[in-house]
Structure formats: C-alpha cells, structure tokens
Amino acid sequence: MQRPIVAYHQDEHHDWVAELSCGHFQHVRHNPPWVSRPWVETLAGRNTMLGYQLNCKKCQLGLPADTLS
C-alpha cells in the first residue's frame, strides 16, 4: 500500500525515519551501494520528498500505528 511521507524523525542511532500518513514509520537510510537515498542527508532533500509515496508493508499486515518513545 502506497502512503505519503508526512514528516521525519531520527531514531536512537541517528538514522532518518519517515513518518507516513497512515501512522507507520519507515527507515529511509542512505547506505550505498545497497540503498541510494542521498536526499536523506539534508533538510532540503528531505523536504523535497514530503508527499512521496512509500510502500507500507505494515499497512498490508494490518499492524497498528507506530509511536515515538
């Protein structure tokens, strides 16, 4: 299920996490060569991706929304 990014936060390891409109969280790491997401590294880059839709596997599984601890 495709869900838009509405915000970001960093986890305890300082990796960026996208907050999706459905309430689920998804890591959006820039970890070349496996994952290339250079936009994650700057505020301007992250802002350009607000509204971008990611596939939410948690929605497909019917899981409850995530919460910040």
Descriptive notes:
There is one protein chain. With 69 residues, the protein is α+β, with helices and mostly antiparallel strands. It has two helices and four strands, in the order E-E-E-H-E-H. It has helices spanning 43-48, 57-60; strands at 2-10, 16-20, 25-27, 53-55. 6% of the residues are buried. The mean pLDDT is 95.
Brief overview, please?
The protein has two helices and four strands. It is α+β, with helices and mostly antiparallel strands and 69 residues long.
Q: How would you describe this structure in keywords?
A:
69 residues, alpha+beta, 4-stranded antiparallel β-sheet
Work out the count of structural domains. 1
Spans of at least 5 consecutive residues with low confidence: none
Separation, N- and C-terminal Cα atoms = 25 Å
Question: Into which percent range does the helicity of residues fall?
Answer: 10-25%
How large is the share of residues in beta strands? Answer: 25-35%
Walk across the major sheet and give the strand order.
3-2-1-4
Radius of gyration in whole Å, from Cα?
12 Å
